[in-house]
Design brief:
single chain, 358 residues
């Protein structure tokens, strides 16, 4: 009688703490050096995602930041222009389990030096307010109209019916700060919620998973439900990321899109960071087989000149004749995904000329 032994191959997906340990080691030790501002940016992003999703990486994983944490005060004093990065990383490390009170001292020093006053952008001032509030402090001379200006910007939905990635990312980050990353209701009005839908439609038509992930996260924080077509597509795109490793690899990659796509998956309760990570340099590459209908759509609309119409029903047949089948498929999906599509298209068409230029 022959005994048949079935061997189950080991999964490349490690237990969570091992996976997160390898992921943090990659960003902390293998991709860039600690004095590089891009090191600060990448590590601030991954730590922020873990902190705001309540994902504890474990003490062993945080050891990769031990030397940084011990010297962060010295670094801040020499590079005060990067104070928001230093505060963000340090506060997240402590809130994720690192023992110490460096964060409180850094916030106090940044407050004493009046560092938020160096910011010209309201968005950056909003971030400074949020960071300092995490240790019960506020910037000197806090502007009482800051939030009002932010909400005024968010409520102009026409801004977000046109391709403008900078404005769209600022919209999502304002929701992050106002909601304390989902910890409280940001109290968005109907106009601001419409802005999120317009920005989301553009991101979906562009097939931009990076921006669409942030928009869907912001919608969740605002108590809105993102369209299922958007979130289903994000789930597929997240699964299609490839992770490669090796010291010679370029890190000019799609790491940010990888991070925010997995942030979205974690937020909705799906598996996040479910890849086989290794303790080495890694790069992250998105699915390259994506349609790019935005350029086709813009060129078709621009060619119409004064014959453009903001009425989607009348323009649909024209678009069908001029867009590739793949681009039209994405546009069809966008149309059915949101009740705001016709209003969005009216703004996107730019068919109403307010007046001649003089």
């Amino acid at each position: 009688m022959t005994n048949v032994i079935h061997l189950t191959p080991p999964s490349r997906i490690n237990p969570q703490e091992a996976r997160l340990g390898a992921l943090l080691s990659n960003f902390a030790e293998h991709r860039r050096h600690g004095d590089d501002v891009f090191w600060l940016k990448e590590n601030a992003e991954i730590l922020n995602i873990l902190e705001c999703t309540g994902t504890k990486p474990g003490d062993a994983a945080l050891e990769a930041y031990s030397e940084f944490y011990q010297t962060v005060e010295k670094r801040l004093r020499f590079f005060p222009q990067y104070y928001r990065f230093f505060l963000s990383i340090t506060l997240d490390l402590e809130d994720l389990g690192m023992v110490g009170d460096q964060g409180e001292r850094l916030v106090a020093w940044a407050q004493d030096q009046d560092l938020p006053r160096a910011e010209l952008s309201d968005l950056q001032r909003m971030e400074a307010v949020r960071l300092m509030a995490r240790r019960d402090r506020a910037p000197k001379g806090c502007d009482p109209t800051l939030e009002d200006r932010a909400r005024y910007f968010m409520g102009r939905s026409d801004t977000f019916a046109l391709p403008n990635k900078k404005a769209a990312y600022e919209l999502t980050h304002l929701v992050f700060y106002l909601s304390e990353y989902g910890r409280c209701d940001p109290n968005l009005d109907a106009d601001a919620k419409r802005s999120l839908h317009f920005a989301g439609l553009l991101a979906f038509i562009e097939q931009n998973a990076d921006l669409l992930s942030e928009i869907c996260i912001a919608m969740h924080y605002a108590g809105d439900i993102p369209p299922g077509l958007w979130t289903d597509w994000l789930k597929r795109e997240t699964a299609l990321f490839t992770v490669s490793d090796g010291m010679g690899l370029s890190v000019q990659d799609d790491y940010h899109e990888f991070l925010v796509c997995n942030w979205h998956q974690a937020l909705v309760g799906d598996a996040a960071f479910a890849k086989g990570f290794v303790d080495d340099r890694m790069r992250f590459d998105r699915n390259v087989a994506r349609a790019t209908p935005m350029r086709e759509m813009s060129e078709a609309m621009f060619s119409l000149d004064d014959a453009r119409s903001g009425d989607w029903i009348s323009m649909r047949l024209y678009m069908e004749d001029r867009l590739s089948p793949e681009a039209m498929r994405v546009l069809d999906q966008a149309e059915t995904s949101s009740q705001h599509f016709e209003a969005f298209f009216h703004g996107f068409a730019r068919a109403t000329t307010p007046g001649a230029l003089h």
